[in-house]
Amino acid sequence: MAKITKTENDKFLRTAVFTALTHTIPMDNPTSAEVEGIPFYRINDRQWGTILVDLNGNHRYIRVGAIVAEERDDMTAEELMQSEIDAYNQKQADKAEKAKAKEKKIAKDKARREAEAKAKEEEANA
After folding, report:
1. Cα–Cα distance between 24 and 38 in angstroms, integer?
2. Are 52 and 63 in contact (CB under 8 A)?
3. Which residue in 13, 20, 36, 55 has a CA-CA distance of 20 to 30 Å to 71?
């Protein structure tokens, strides 16, 4: 059996993903599909797009792309996906921790400024 090229494999995988995302791609028009009432149009082999109205009332172009990860000798596809999920979750946890520390510092600085202002006011009244 002939080995399938990376290009052919990636195209097959992207088509499978876009078909799943768009439920079914109509055979009579493989360049557009509708999902939950949102029309999607084929942009190229790797992307589909749509136009939505944002919360400010502006029309925005949204692209959905499919990236096929390279095969690796050091980990399976499942391990790679899990490592990316874990890295994302860790970054989100780090962000939350930094935000919490920032809030504490802001509160501490505010209390310090208020105490200094109160001390100055008492000094001026004395």
Report:
1. 13
2. no
3. 20
Average pLDDT, the chain: 86
Range 81-98 burial, b when 16+ CB lie within 10 A, else e:
eeeeeeeeeeeeeeeeee
Percentage of the chain with pLDDT > 70?
Answer: 92
Average pLDDT over residues 96-110: 95
Distances (CA, A) of 49 to 4, 13, 43, 81, 91: 28, 18, 6, 24, 28
Whether this prediction's pTM lies above 0.70 is answered by: no
Q: What SS3 string covers the chain?
A: CCCCCHHHHHHHHHHHHHHHHCCCCCCCCCCEEEECCEEEEECCCCEEEEEEECCCCCEEEEEEECCCCCCCCCCCHHHHHHHHHHHHHHHHHHHHHHHHHHHHHHHHHHHHHHHHHHHHHHHHHC
> What average pLDDT does this structure show over 86-96?
95
Q: What angle do CA 92, 95, 100 make, to 5 degrees?
A: 125
